[in-house]
Amino acid sequence: MIAQATGFQVTDELRDTMRQWRTRFAVFGAVGVLATVAGLFLVSPNQFYRSWLWSYLFVVGLAAGSLAWLMVQYLTGGAWGVIIRRPAEAAARTLPLVLLLFIPIFIGIRNLYPWSHSDLVRADEFLRHKQPYLNVPFFTIRALIYLGGWCFLSWFFNRWSAIEDREGGQTPRRKMGALAGPGLIFFGLAVTFMATDWVLSIDPRWYSTMYGLLMIAGQALSSMAFLIAVIVFLAAHKPMVDVVTPRHLHDLGKLMFALVMLWAYFSFSQFLIIWAGNLPEEIPWYLVRLHGGWQWVGLAIVIGHFALPFALLLSRDLKRNFKLLRNIALFVLLMRVVDIYWEVAPDFLKGSFGLSWMDFTAVLGLVGIWLAYFLRQLEKRPLLPLHDPHLSEALEHGRE
Amino acid sequence: MSEQGIYGVMAEFDNPSALVSAARAARAKGYRKLDAYSPFPIEELTDALHLHKNKLPLIVLAGGVIGGLTGFFLQYWIAVIYFPINIAGRPLNSWPSFIIITFELTILFASLSAVLGMMALCGLPMPYHPVFNVPRFSAASRNRFFLCIEAADPLFDPAQTSQFLGTLEPTEVSEVAH
Fold first, then answer.
1. In Å, how far from its chain's centre is CA A323?
2. From edge to edge, which strands make up the β-sheet containing B172-177?
3. What share of chain A is helix, strand, coil (3-state, %, to 5)?
4. 3-state secondary structure of B106
5. Of the four listed, A108, A170, A265, A315, which is most buried by Cβ atoms within 10 Å?
6. A242/A1 Cα distance (integer angstroms)
7. DSSP string of B22-33?
8. Which of B57, B90, B99 sits opposite A268 (nearest CB)?
9. In chain B, what are the domains?
10. Rounded mean pLDDT of chain B?
């Protein structure tokens, strides 16, 4: 194959296209972030930190979810993941940036979380009881552990991947496999605690043991939809145009389909248990989200995040159609944004629906900056892992 | 028809890729009524024989939809119409708690439709099939691969079809009696 001879390097033509997109994303992102920061001074600090928090959760999902896909691939082997390995590695390499983007949340802890106010804690038996866990220093240390741990994992996987490209052999892969198991356990725990810390503690009285899993499914879905969109973009250019076939897309489409169902399953389980229990300390979370206009957002999520993608992805032909599958993936990403907003924002707005212009600028800004950095990382390495033990199997798999 | 006595012509291969390329060649030659036999599923064969389009997905979808409606309205009928009782002040039509059974019956009906629909479309159970008249055919469940072009095909001609199959490097070509 021609592409194999050139080592699947990013071609000059593709690099130019990627740089154009990078410039667009960077400009977009910079404008968005600057506008949001302007809002910090002009409108209200509270709104700035809220918009930043939920937008940040979406970006974390893309980066950390991609890292999780890498670890799943190293742990299970198989040919399906070879094609997404490089985009997932590039997304995992953005984790240091994601760590930096946490700084505004650290600064805004007091604007976001009621348990950080000592007068409120003193006055409330409940918060006093939770204080050994919910306090500013421990919150910050935990956040650093999640983000630092992911950066650490990403650094090792990318390092070994580079060694594999350079030298080949079984050793790098064996190391990746050995780290992927503990890495996934860490990932599962980190996302669960992260969800509790960053989202649930906005309302420190509410808890749900399902919420961590829901967040994991959401991150896995976000990142899979994102990786599908990236693969379809790459498949339109050399060298990947000779590699990616409908069968590869079919495999990824099936995974996205499964995750749409998994997310719906977790989401409904949480709702059903709380609805059936009907306990006064559990139901407020849903009461807030099912009244005052939020119920229409909830309905849009049921339809757009589950029913519609579920019905469409049943089709085999659709999963093998590059453009259609990419459009569904982008739509799923949009619904992920809506879902995160619906999960985070109602707690701040007590009772009625609200959406600030800063919510738009924050999400566009953060996603723009993140995408620009992602494309910068993506062009650094060949688009396929040259010495992956499953590479030839994956290429062969694509040919009918 | 003059070939009343023949069901078709069968070629035997000793490896799966020979079977797949033979099936492709036969399709390319214009044969449409052909079937392949193998001891294990070969994914490429499905593509080579263009077997992807059949009615089974529709049957399964219909089964799933019927199962879902059955599951939901079974509970709705009991809880709301036939035996309404007040449970902890909840509405009679407590749809969230119906969802689990609805989901289970969707899966149950869909999978039963898949099994039964597959059997119906394949014409199973089928105690007799002409291909069993080929003495070596029992090897199709061990280590041999067979491609049969049926006499019902408009292009079928016993001599020419046998000769064509002979060019595909089979280990043996034989006529299949009715």
1. 22
2. B34-37, B145-150, B6-13, B172-177
3. 80, 0, 20
4. helix
5. A108
6. 8
7. HHHHHHHHT--S
8. B99
9. 3-53+138-177 (3.30.70), 56-122 (no CATH)
10. 85
Interface residue ranges in chain B relative to chain A, Cβ cutoff 8 Å: 44, 47, 52, 57, 61, 88, 90, 96-97, 99-100
Encoded tokens for B53: 């389009």
pLDDT, average across residues A268-287: 90
- Check CB contact under 8 Å for A400 and B97: no
Predicted confidence (pLDDT) at residue A399 exceeds the cutoff of 80: no
Q: Cβ contact (<8 Å) for B99 and A272? A: yes
SS3 of chain B: helix, strand, coil, percent, to 5:
55, 15, 35
Q: What digits encode the pLDDT tens for the residues A335-363?
A: 999 999 999 999 888 778 888 898 999 99
Cβ contacts of A271 on chain B, cutoff 8 Å: 96
Taking 50 as the pLDDT cut, the residues of chain B under it are 1-3
Distance CA B125, CA B141 (A): 17
pLDDT recorded at residue A159 = 92
Would you say the ipTM is above 0.90?
A: no
Residue-wise pLDDT for A8-32, tens only, equals 888 888 888 999 999 999 999 999 9
User: Which of A46, A15, A188 is CA-nearest to residue A110?
Assistant: A46
pLDDT tens digits for A77-134? 877 888 899 999 999 999 999 999 999 999 999 999 989 988 888 888 888 888 889 9
- Cβ-count burial A179-195 (b if 16+ within 10 Å, e if not): bbeebbebbeebbbbbb
A119 touches chain B (CB under 8 A): no
Query: Would strands B6-13 and B172-177 be described as parallel, antiparallel, or unpaired?
Result: antiparallel
**Is A352:A288 a contact under the CB 8 Å cutoff?**
no
Q: 3-class SS at A224?
A: helix
Contact at CB, A314 and B61, closer than 8 angstroms: yes
Q: How far apart are alpha carbons B131 and B100 in whole angstroms?
A: 46
Average pLDDT of chain A is 90
Say whether B10 sits in a helix, a strand or coil. strand
